[in-house]
Amino acid sequence: MLQTRDLVWALLFVGTAAALQVTITPALGEMSVGESKFFLCEVIGDATDIDWFSPSGEKILPNQQDVIVTRNDEASSTLTIYNANVDKAGTYKCVAKTGDKESQATVNVKIYQKITFTNAPSRQEFTEGDDADIVCDVVSSPPPTVVWKYKRQRVEFAKDVRYKALSNNHLQIRGIKKTDEGEYTCEGRIMSRGEIDFTVIKVTVNVRPSLRARQTELNATADVGQSVTLACDADGFPEPNVTWARNNVVLETDDKYSLNEDGSELIIKDVKKVDEGDYTCIAKNKAGETEKEIGLNVFVQPKITFLENLTASELEEQITLTCEATGDPTPSIVWSYGRRQFSEGEQSLDGNVVVRSDARVSSLTLKYVQFTDAGQYLCTARNSIGLDTQAMYLEVRYAPKIQGAVAVYTWEGNPANISCEVLAHPGASVVWFRDGQQLPSANASNVKILSTPAVSYLEVTPESQADFGSYNCTATNMIGMESKEFLLIQADVPSAPAIERVEPYSSTAVVGFEEPDASGGVPILKYKVQWRVSQEEQWTAREFEVEEGMQVIFVSGLRPETSYVMKMSAINGKGEGDSSAPEFFKTEPIQGEPNPPKLEAKLQSNGNVLKVNWIKQDDGGSPIKHYLVRYKAKHTSDWKQELRLPSGSEHVVLSGLDWDTEYEVLVQAENQQGKSTPGSISIKTSPEPTTIPDAVTNGSGLGTGAIVGILIVVFVLLLVAVDVTCYFLNKCGLLMCIAVNLCGKSGPGAKGKDIEEGKAAFTKDESKEPIVEVRTEEERTPNHEGGGQTEPNETTPLTEPEKNAVDGTSKPEEAEAKKPAAEVKTVPNEAAQTNGSESKA
Ligand SMILES: *[C@@H]1O[C@H](CO)[C@@H](O)[C@H](O)[C@H]1NC(C)=O
Ligand SMILES: *[C@@H]1O[C@H](CO)[C@@H](O)[C@H](O)[C@H]1NC(C)=O
Ligand SMILES: *[C@@H]1O[C@H](CO)[C@@H](O)[C@H](O)[C@H]1NC(C)=O
Ligand SMILES: *[C@@H]1O[C@H](CO)[C@@H](O)[C@H](O)[C@H]1NC(C)=O
Ligand SMILES: *[C@@H]1O[C@H](CO)[C@@H](O)[C@H](O)[C@H]1NC(C)=O
Ligand SMILES: *[C@@H]1O[C@H](CO)[C@@H](O)[C@H](O)[C@H]1NC(C)=O
Known about the structure:
The chain is mostly beta strands and 841 residues long. It has 7 helices and 58 strands. Helix 2 (694-730) packs antiparallel against helix 4, helix 4 (752-767) packs across helix 7 (814-838) and helix 6 packs across helix 7. Bound molecules: 2-acetamido-2-deoxy-beta-D-glucopyranose (6 copies). The chain crosses the membrane at residues 706-729.
């Protein structure tokens, strides 16, 4: 349509006038940088040339790069501007020519720039504390207005002084903080065009590492396989790497070191002294690097490195013991010997021990060495973390030293030991001499030498006066020799003791005496006390063994209201000494009942068998007829049947008692005047044994058998005794019959000895028969009884008052008198035995 109309117009002009008409479409040229656009120049009228001219007036030639002109047909030409830039702006002219006619049109091409972010990285990183410059370079034409937003809010520069808009539109944050992190929006606006554009910038704030050492100083002990851990905790953003270094050498996991996963811990294995020093932990990230030092102190336990045994000789001027020790801190050294301690600079009172210490070395100097200095010395090295102790031995060689009692007493026939105690190092050999002749010699068969390492005994059994005198002990070792004379002295009998006082009762007396002035060189073994009724000749004698602290002697078996003479003498191994001056006294009249017996109880090994011994006390002036024994378990009220024991008895055995039970036993002595108050004693039986020992079963079995057996034997003996008595006295009985019938013997005319024997047998059996005496003890009893069963505390085991009467003058109660005679004899017998053994001492 348009073309048709234009064509009409052209025809009109061609026809009427030859004028040219030029139009450019579009008439307004506005474009943004980089855009492309074309303009059409149309000519009405016959034009031979259609040309375009640039704003600078130059004709635009074809084949140009960005600005291209194309002739479409006779009447139009196109100007195309590709990829416009600001230079291309201006007024372009289209000129049509034909012959000399010319016509033109212009178009004003305006080129403007849109908002463009030329440099606004979408991620920007800063370091905390720095002044951050958030870059956002924006161009446009006309230049834009830039607005910053943070968290959808416009950044108000007036409100926060840390923010500043730089002239280049950058946003500056002074001293940026971690909290400033986030997305910032940079927005450009052009008011005239209403144009807007923005870009989002992600801001990251890095933080320089910071380090915290868990300890700045560590202590460790060397050479004990110890591991120490050094630790540094790092903070920062991004997460820092931690590394360790010592003397600028980086440490890595190996035999010596080990690092944990995040590197925060360094483990030093098997710490040695060389590991002492400073360790650096280094934390590093993009934002920077931080270091921290940790000091390791390595201590070393004390160790004694030198200490040796030493040998000295007595009276050597001095000897020095040396002890060396290592350790860190340097150890201090102390010496000790037994309970004594010596430390640096210390001196003994006599100045004979001096200790000097230097770094790591200590010396102990002993002056004028004595044999008593020998032994074990301890060296102790000590520092703040430990100690080491070692022992050394000081050997002191010294010549023999002889000790031992110089004087030894004995008597002819009694062997005695002369002991030569020798101290020596090294050990000495000991030789005995007698009159310059070495012992034992062919002439001296009565001499024996018994040696132990420390003592040499010369056992001499003197045969004659010639064997007494001096003996020479000579000890010799490599250091020297010592000899000493020992004297073997003839012992004497003791001198006379003195009777100080006699306290008489009706049948007993307490004799206080004073020991002899001289023992004769050997111990006194016994005292012999002799007494007689004043008007009579016959002495009664009894011996009493010496006991510790003995000051009084109890004499029993005296007649009441009778005057006596008493004397005493002391006996040692050599023999009996002189008698004391005689002492006169008179016994008291009959008093009445006896005094209560003193009791002592002993559990037999069975544990439920009890033996109660008693010691007869004063009988009140008339002989004791018998003893009454009662007993019961303490917790019950019923007494067991009372036992009546003959006057000679000294004990009772109670068997078959309850286990683990306290028993009370009462013993009364009875004479014609009545019963004594009871002597009493309590004792507890053992707990019942879990396994019954054989002895018990055997014992009880025997017990029953024994009772029956004994009863039968006793009965038969009794019968025989009665029969024999009858036979002799009355000439009757079974024996008489047999004698008369078989032998035709008319029986003995003289009774004397036989009668007494018969009686003795009778009384003995009877008296030896304590009712409850059920044990095999029975057989031992006679022997024991004879010994007087002297109780340890009781110096006078007063057996029977009547006994002595036999030896002495009184003859009442003949029947009972026999047995004591036997018992009196046993005293000297036993004494003789002890005598023998003790006399050697
Ligand atoms: C390490 O030892 C020294 C000296 O003994 C002491 O003063 C310090 O306190 C110790 N340090 C530690 C951490 O134990
Ligand atoms: C941190 O350690 C890791 C792993 O050990 C390593 O890859 C990285 O390069 C280290 N970074 C720095 C800054 O040393
Ligand atoms: C030192 O003497 C003691 C005892 O005499 C001995 O046990 C120890 O082995 C000796 N030490 C040396 C190093 O000779
Ligand atoms: C003398 O001593 C020796 C050794 O100790 C000893 O065997 C001996 O019985 C003693 N002799 C006398 C009489 O004591
Ligand atoms: C023994 O003794 C006799 C005389 O007492 C003396 O002649 C003799 O030499 C002695 N024998 C020895 C071996 O000493
Ligand atoms: C003991 O006998 C030895 C050797 O005969 C003699 O050297 C020494 O002097 C005698 N010692 C005494 C104390 O008599």
